[in-house]
Amino acid sequence: CVRFDQLCNLVDDCGDKSDEKMCRNHFHCKTSGFFISLVQKCDGKVDCLDHSDECNEDCGKEIISGIWLKVLAWFIGVTAMLLNAGSLAREFMGVKDNRKAAHVNRILTALINFGDFLTGLYLMLISFQDSFMIGSNYCEIQSQWLSSDHCAYLGVINSFGSTLSLFSMTALSIFRALNIRGRSLHVTKRGKWKAWLASAIIVIFSITIPCVPVIGFLEDFFVNGMTYNEMSLFIGSGNKRDHLNVLTAYFGKITDPTISWRMLRNLLDVMFSDDYGRITSSGRRIHFYGNDGVCLFKFFVQNDDPQRVYVWLVIIFNFLCVLIISLCYGLINLSARKSHNKVRGMMAQGSNHGAPDKHAQRLQRNITRIIITDFLCWVPFLTTCLFHSLEVLDATSLYSVFSI
Predict the structure, then answer these.
(1) Global pTM?
(2) N or C: the chain end with fewer CB closer than 10 Å?
(3) Is residue 125 over pLDDT 70?
């Protein structure tokens, strides 16, 4: 016999689960046989060692959820790659133009196209993983995927592409704002080297930002947690707080709140003897891009995230770029209206002098289209990042949407 208060308390007090089987307040983990509270089912946090509380018919998930998002990801990925590949070819064919404005415009526009091409490539690769490699098995192998090198590579590709596109747009906007008088000076050899050097700096800066979070010795700033195979102490993935709670219970109070991941792994090695196998040998880092299945740059941070300072610096820098683009194109459009009105007046008087250059107009339309579409993508994203950091909303579920 057991006491009445031992019924439905999520503990197998009888040994044959008879005191818990008929209860309605629990979820029964399939493999381990443990009971967890019903509210822990489908709450986004793995509580069963076999992941059955999150991977079931009620709340199973995939990398990209929903058929429409899957189709949209494929469509945008293929379209972005094809269109930007064609634009790149055209820009490189015309890069020999000896006019200063056209030469710089083509270089920077090519960088924007290349950045958008990489974003399309990312969408293609993540869609391929979602549709053919992982599919409905994602829920069971979520921890392995989020800690994998493939996920980190995809995150770097996407972040490099979007950052390169934004920085190139900013440089292009500044250049065009400084040349609104329409002067068509010839490029000297020295001027060409300056243009290519500026482009190289943009590329280096753009690749540095997404690569910094995956540098090994910076793991204390960018690693989100650790995941282990078949380890009941750390179900799913455990962050530093989870590790400290377990180690404190074993060793006593640990006074250093800034303890490194390396020290935590050493303490775990001491905690588990060689007879039982060192659990750190099976431990894998949940890296910076492993915050969601789509492997995006971790823009959505909270106040207790170790990477919040770096992320906020990047967000602020991106916001300044968007602001500069807006101001520059405001000046450009104002100047273009004045110039257009002047040309119309001269043509009305029967003069062909100052007739509009059709090539320049076409280039202006293409650049404006690129700027507007990228601007419409960045503004909602940066706004959502701000609201998430201020805890106005929880945007974690929106990663898959913003990846597209």
Answers:
(1) 0.81
(2) N
(3) yes
